[in-house]
Specification:
The protein has 110 residues and is mainly alpha-helical. Helices cover 60% and strands 5% of the residues. It has a single domain (12-109), classed as Orthogonal Bundle (Arc Repressor Mutant, subunit A), CATH 1.10.10.10. Strand 1 (12-14) and strand 2 (20-22) form a beta hairpin. The longest helix has 25 residues, at 68-92.
Length: 110
């Protein structure tokens, strides 16, 4: 009997917001790559994210290793966009003094 090798696509899906997710889960490629960079094994990642299969985690890591430059560019763009959104939110809702404002709002309710 001969083993028939069938190429498989990486289980990565780009959602309507342009975020790459692993399989049919909400777990992002960025999450897997970050954990991988922090030294987590695929098995550790599977324990932290039980919605992922071990095979999908290995496939995502393999995709990253084969396309590291492109994925790093994507991740940098995602981080830049997140930073921009955070700055906009902080400009609209300054975090300075938030505790005192919340306590004052709470006291006004009673």
């Amino acid at each position: 009997m001969t083993l028939q090798v069938i190429p498989e696509l990486a289980p990565l899906v780009t959602d309507h917001d342009g975020v790459i997710r692993v399989g049919d889960t909400r777990v992002t490629l960025a999450t897997i790559v970050t954990a991988f960079h922090q030294g987590a094994t695929a098995e550790t990642i599977a324990q932290q994210y039980p919605s992922l299969t071990l095979a999908d985690i290995y496939a995502a890591i393999s995709y990253y290793l084969r396309h590291q430059r492109d994925v790093d560019i994507y991740l940098a763009a995602q981080q830049q966009e997140a930073d921009g959104v955070r700055q906009q939110n902080e400009a609209r809702f300054p975090p300075t003094g938030i505790r005192s404002r919340l306590l004052a709002r709470r006291a006004a309710q009673y």
